[in-house]
Amino acid sequence: MRILIAAAGSRGDIAPYTGLGARLRGAGHDVALAATEEFAPLARACGAEFRRLPGRARGDALGRRELLRSAVDFITELGQGFADAVTPDTDLLLLSATTAPLGWHLTEATGVPSVGVYLQPTAPTGDFPPTVTATRSLSRPGNRLAGRLALRMADRVYGPAVTALRRRLELPARTPAATRRRQERAHWPVLHGFSTALVPRPSDWRPGLEIVGTWWPHVDTARLPTEVEDFLAAGPPPVFVGFGSMAAGHGERLGALAVRALRAAGLRGVLQSGSAQLAADGDDVLTVGDVPHELLFPRTAAVVHHAGAGTAAAGLRAGVPAVPVPVSADQPFWAARLAALGAATAPLPFASLTAEALADAVDRAVRRPEHARSAGAVARRLATEDGAGRVVGFLTERFG
Length: 400
What we know:
Layout: E1 2-6, H1 11-26, E2 30-36, H2 40-45, E3 49-53, H3 64-81, E4 92-95, H4 100-110, E5 114-118, H5 140-168, H6 176-185, E6 190-192, E7 209-211, H7 226-233, E8 239-241, H8 251-265, E9 269-272, E10 285-288, H9 293-296, E11 302-305, H10 309-318, E12 322-324, H11 331-341, H12 355-367, H13 369-382, H14 387-399
Parallel strand pairs: 1-2, 1-4, 2-3, 4-5, 5-6, 6-7, 8-9, 8-11, 9-10, 11-12
């Protein structure tokens, strides 16, 4: 089959699909990855064709209102060129949670079938509150109500883009909410790319919603850069500190804060610059750019990160304890999940982060064995899962 994977967002929202794409190619399918321009190298490195989507996700929207405004702008721009990514020979669309509310209309217009491939749970459930609007359980009825309200909020975000897209596709007017309800009634299949170790499948989910296991990013190198290897060999395992695509504009403050915390705890560190542009100098600290977490994390003592879905999973896979510092969106949800597993310290709110609090948390993560034991137990469970393989099996059974 000629399969188009469409995903949008930050690096953590795209990288898992490179591993899924590589696995699909290995099963004999032609794969294209549609994403925004900065992720073209990721797509090509896994052997997929790249197709450009317009727009660029921001990583500096910290407040909920600012985050919503940024999302509306991003989705509106994304919708303007989304249809161009689907060529006439496409046999199947695999849609992320961000692109599905646009892709459904392409399926209606072209007849090309689609399947959801989500990195976050979005369907309402009594088991937990929505991943992007709450961190504490609101009771089972309250969680379900909040979940439905979160979907309505998303419908508003997609409204302008859907209206323009349906007009371009010469489809009759229909609201995002009406389209979503239509998909739910049809039990549109969604395969979730995370582990049931993190989120057990809710018993009140409708048929068609499955949790299959993590899709690990494709890694096209077998070793770390020489400077990283040399630093690792020069002393005990360091602590990784990085905020991925988040916290743009906070690099100077975060870099100095991280170094003070690490030195107060008597630990070495590797700082990943990321969008925040973290940087530090010294024999006990190394600043790096993009380095595969799959290769670096197993050689660290702990990982300090923003608790994005992909980074959180990479830390668990490595079996190392985490110190989550969630910034926004779904990150507080994943941070709470890590802590509930015992694989992480209690989350540290980004807005009020101090060197003293970070030093204390890092010290506990590294020197108290219970966090490492819990992380190791989850790592052993993840090693038994094959999320990408289950997607391949599902598509083979459904589409041949």
